[in-house]
Amino acid sequence: MVKCDPLGAAPAPIALGEAIAIGRASDGTLYLIERPDESSEYRAFESSGSSLVRHVVAGTGEGHDADGTDHYNILVDSAADGFTLIAEVSRDRRRMLVAPGWLAKQLDIDAAQGEELEIVGKEALEPLTLHNLPGDVHIEYSAALPDGERLVVVRPEYDASYEQFRLFLGPRERMEEREVFAVNRSKDGGSTHIEFQLGARRADVFFPHRFDGMGGVVDEPVTLDDGGTTLELALDRPPAAPEGASYRCLR
Q1: Cα distance between residue 50 and residue 69, in whole Å
Q2: CB contact set of 80 (below 8 Å; sequence gap of 6+)
Q3: Are strands 247-249 and 175-178 parallel, antiparallel or unpaired?
Q4: Fewer CB atoms near the end CB (10 Å): N or C, the chain?
Q5: How far is CA 154 from CA 142, 178, 180, 215, in A?
Q6: Domain spans of the chain, in order of start
């Protein structure tokens, strides 16, 4: 175990995947829509000086014409303001437009209000340095055990997978990371089992999440089963890091 700060931002390495469209605005700004592979979500980038900066994608839309043209609508949340990227991609032509604000469900470049961009190739991006999202950490769950110890589950804010969930357990002065074996989330709104190492045993902490049919959530206890005893935990709403906590990480 090493002393660590699992809540500190840590930008992940990034590489570009398949370019859907690359466009240059009249002021020289470059815009890129791409995705790492066909199973991944779309990503949006904007040039700033010598950097190519990734922005948060707040929403996407797609369409497909009978003539084979694909349409893309990417709602972008940037530090300065929100904007929309719209692209049309056919076998022999690409078009791209940038518009201020979020034009949800708008797929037609000719009908949209904005600037149509000059389509450029990947070589236009080569001089630029890639910058990923900041790497902020999201607290998925936090809860208190009957003896006062605390349990915290964290994950990356963006590009997170269940394999990236991390669980910390212990008194505030020494919250130790436990090896996570599996994260299983139901389709009932988010009920989640997390299996992890607890001493010599394999434990399971269960976070129920059930709607009451009127837009609310049924308040059910979090349970921790270590294979011998079952404890009820007091869930924090909203989840929060224990004040003054000190962490130890596996890595």
Answers
A1: 33
A2: none
A3: parallel
A4: C
A5: 9, 12, 12, 26
A6: 18-131, 136-249
Question: DSSP H helical segments within the chain, as ranges?
Answer: none
pLDDT band at residue 79 under the 50/70/90 scheme: confident
19-45 tens-digit pLDDT? 999 999 999 999 999 999 888 899 999
**Dist. CA 69–CA 71, nearest whole Å:** 7
CA dihedral sign of residues 77, 81, 82, 85: negative
Q: Which two tokens stand for residue 199?
A: 């001493």
**Which range, 4-13, 148-157, 217-226, has the best average confidence (pLDDT)?**
148-157
Each residue of 194-210: pLDDT tens digit? 999 999 999 999 999 87
Residue 207 tokens read as: 């976070």
165 touches 5 (CB < 8 A): no
DSSP state of 88: E
Cα separations in angstroms, 170 against 99, 156, 209: 50, 21, 24
Among 183, 201, 200, 181, which residue's Cα sits nearest to residue 192? 183
The dihedrals phi and psi of 163, each to the nearest 5 degrees, come to -65, -15
Work out the pLDDT band at 80, boundaries 50, 70, 90.
confident
Cα distances (angstroms) measured from residue 122 to each of 22, 44, 102, 127, 212: 7, 14, 26, 10, 51
Which H/E stretch holds residue 66? none
In Å, how far from its chain's centre is CA 239? 17
